[in-house]
Design a protein that fits this description.
Largest sheet: 8 strands, parallel, barrel
Strand content: 5-15%
Distance between the termini: 41 Å
Strand order of the largest sheet: 2-3-6-9-10-11-12-13
Structural class: alpha/beta
């Protein structure tokens, strides 16, 4: 007969049965998730309604800005709880999906932290999500191994491994395979709840030195969303019987509205915070999304929207100042480059770009940075070690008072640069290839020597949408044509031909390229 999951009252599982999955989808773990869902669902619904309301205001011409009602939080002197010693040093963090081989390579990479991702680097199929939970449980237990049959090689953990942080999905994403009282569960409560329930005790003993587990929290737009997380953490600590402030989380500042709420977000998570992080690509995507009704705020080609743009530099400087003033880490952005094995000159050039980017981050005051590939870890580490020396971080040394004068205008300044046909083509080509991989179950995708995740597809898609909506003139490469449906249709057709040439006809026909297109 068919096996099925043993579920508590009111919980229904629609995902396929697997005996490995049944070890993590236990009755007690599911009850823990269901209790969180029932306790917080109304607050979550309200927070998501508030997002819609804010969007409506922006579409009517309002600008995001600092909230006068919470000025006292921004102006008062207060600090977050002291940083747990186990994660004082976060000079380089490696990110990647919760796939088995990736977890082992990342934990062994020499980075200080591994961000294991249930979010933008993972295609959120039932298989990926549940297999990811199984993998993390084995990783925390220290027993994880992987036999690569193609290379006939067994991967296992070194003695020294990176500290594990887990990134859940955002508040807005439902988990359709698990119904609680007839409604889809909130994705992040599933990701958090199952992982926390099975691993908190082992993690605190073996990795966290009495603290943990550690998390990354994505896509927040307002401090009320951080407040819900804080309550979730307090509830979990109480159920587990561990002391308050054990769980710690770094919040990604990757939406435009959140940059005006950084103090407030840290304040809500005061006892559970380990800082903020600059989520660059998503931040730029959010800039377009926030101003979607505004034809005066068009983005230039995305390759030109880097950290030297005034609005991006203002965002990172304000984030650093805010974190250090409140006693926590200010984490830098992603180095997405992948080592280029067959071209040493191109590889050295790529590494030089990474070093330059990381040098400007460490000099700006960041306490650590992200890399997408183990091959980049040594270069990033070297830059941070050379500039921070023996210290674990710059929390107490880089105060950056000059950032106190950053205004709303600085944070909203329109990016400079041209818009080109090549930009439209790149967005289309990268967007289609990423989505094709995502539909096939891969969320972390190497394209043109960069490791791309969902943020890349989002920014490519939304930029094409913006240019189409406003019939933008492409003047960047002297072509001077306007983006129209006809032009875009032609570009898509031509880029599909190019993709087929690049990946080969067999792979093109087997892959999900047509669906993606």
């Amino acid at each position: 007969m068919d096996s099925y999951y043993d579920v508590p009252e009111g919980v229904d599982i629609r995902g396929r049965y697997d005996e490995e999955f049944a070890k993590i989808l236990t009755k007690d773990a599911l009850k823990f998730v269901a209790d969180l869902q029932r306790e917080f669902r109304n607050q979550i619904k309200y927070a998501l309604e508030c997002r819609k309301e804010a969007k409506r205001r922006y579409n009517e011409g309002a600008l995001p800005g600092f909230d006068p009602a919470s000025r006292y939080i921004r102006e008062q002197q207060w600090v977050c709880a002291p940083v747990p010693p186990a994660v004082a040093d976060r000079k380089v963090e490696i990110t990647g999906p919760v796939k088995r081989k990736m977890i082992i390579n990342a934990l062994n990479s020499g980075a200080k932290v591994f961000l294991a991702d249930f979010e933008d680097a993972l295609s959120p199929s039932w298989e990926n999500l549940m297999r990811g939970q199984v993998n993390l449980k084995d990783a925390v237990a220290g027993t994880i191994t992987f036999h690569d049959k193609v290379r006939n090689r067994v991967y296992k953990l070194n003695d020294q491994t990176a500290k594990l942080f887990v990134r859940t999905r955002g508040w807005h994403l439902p988990e359709a395979h698990i119904l609680i009282d007839g409604e889809p569960a909130t994705g992040c409560l599933v990701d958090f709840g199952i992982y926390f329930y099975h691993n908190h005790s082992t993690f605190r003993r073996t990795q966290g030195a009495g603290f943990g587990p550690f998390f990354y929290l994505p896509k927040m737009e307002h401090s009320r969303e951080a407040k819900i997380w804080n309550s979730v953490f307090e509830r979990a600590e109480k159920v587990a019987g561990i002391e308050r402030g054990s769980i710690r989380a770094t919040v990604l500042i990757e939406t435009l509205p959140a940059v005006f709420q950084m103090n407030e977000i840290l304040y809500e998570l005061k006892d559970h915070s380990v800082g903020l992080n600059c989520g660059r690509w998503d931040y730029i995507f959010s800039y377009v999304k926030t101003f979607q009704a505004n034809p005066d705020r068009l983005l230039s080609d995305r390759v030109q929207v880097g950290m030297t743009q005034h609005f991006m530099k203002s965002y990172s400087d304000l984030l650093i100042r805010t974190c250090h003033r409140r006693g926590v880490h200010a984490m830098g952005g992603m180095a997405a480059q992948i080592p280029i094995k067959d071209d040493p000159a191109a590889n050295e050039e790529a590494l030089e770009l990474v070093r330059k980017d990381k040098l400007s981050e460490v000099k700006a005051g960041h306490d650590g940075t992200w890399a997408a590939h183990p091959g980049l870890v040594p270069a990033c580490m070297e830059v941070f070690n050379n500039n921070i020396g023996n210290a674990s971080n710059q929390i107490n040394t880089a105060k950056w008072e000059n950032a106190a004068n950053i205004t709303e205008e600085d944070l909203l300044q329109i990016p400079r640069g041209g818009r080109s046909m090549e930009g439209l083509r790149l967005n289309t080509r990268v967007g289609i290839q990423y989505v094709a991989a995502w539909l096939s179950g891969a969320g972390s995708v190497p394209l043109y020597n960069l490791m791309e995740d969902a943020a890349t597809a989002e920014i490519s898609r939304v930029q094409n949408w913006q240019w189409l909506k406003y019939g933008v003139e492409l003047d960047g490469d002297g072509v001077g044509v306007k983006v129209s449906k006809e032009l875009f249709g032609r570009v898509v057709e031509e880029e599909m031909v190019r993709i087929e040439k690049e990946v080969g006809t067999e792979r093109f026909n087997k892959g999900m390229y047509k669906e993606a297109c």
